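Re: weekly structure request thread

Next one in the queue (214 aa):
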Amino acid sequence: MRAFLCAIDETIWDSIENGWVRPTTTKSEWDKATLALANANSKVINVIFCGVSIDKFHRIFHVKTAKEAWTILETTYEGTKKVKDIELQMLTTQFEKVKMSDNELFDSLYGRLNEIVIAKLNLGEKIEDAKVVRKILRSIPQTFRAKVTAIKESKDLDDIKIQELIGSLQTYELELPSHKSSKSLALKTINERTGDSFDEEDVEKEVAFLAKNF
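Done, posted below.
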C-alpha cells in the first residue's frame, strides 16, 4: 500500500503518518499549502476506499481522514497492541528455536527464518541483519563448522551482508561430501534412466529438480 500510494504522489504518505486536520476557515481562504494537504488526504481516502472489501469499507466509510481509516484497518488486520505484542513474542520464540537438521538443505533453513523475519517486520519490529547472521551461524549443523569458524575469523559479523553469507554457505554446502554423494547417485539414476551422459550443469539441474520434488 505504501509503494502504491507513493507512486501516485510521494508526499501523500504523510497524510497517514502525520494525519490531517481540516482548517476552520472556509475553503476559499485556503492557501496552496493547505489545499495540497487536503488533496493528499482525499487521494489516500479514495485509494483506501477502493482497495478494501465491502465489509471492511463498512468499518471506515464514515471517517474523514486517511490516518483514521488506516488506524482502523491496522487494528482490523493486525489486532490491538496487546495482540501484536503476543504475536511478536511467539515469533521471537520461533526464531530462537529454529535449527537446521542434518538432512535439511540450507535454503530450507533460511526460508523458515526469513518467514519469521518478514512476519515480525509486518508487525512493526525489524530484526537487525547482524542478529539474523548470528542466528544462521548458530543454527547450522556440525558439517558447516569449518566454514563457520572461517567466517568468524575473517569477517566482522556486524558488517557482513546476509546475502553474502547465504551465498558463501550455499557454495560450501555444494562441496560437502554428502552433497557430492547425492550428486553421484543422481547422475547414476539419470544415466540409467536415459542411457545418455550429462555434463555438470545438467546434473546440477537434475539434482535441484529431484530435491524440489522430494
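The mean pLDDT is 85. Residues 2-78 form one domain.
Next request, please.
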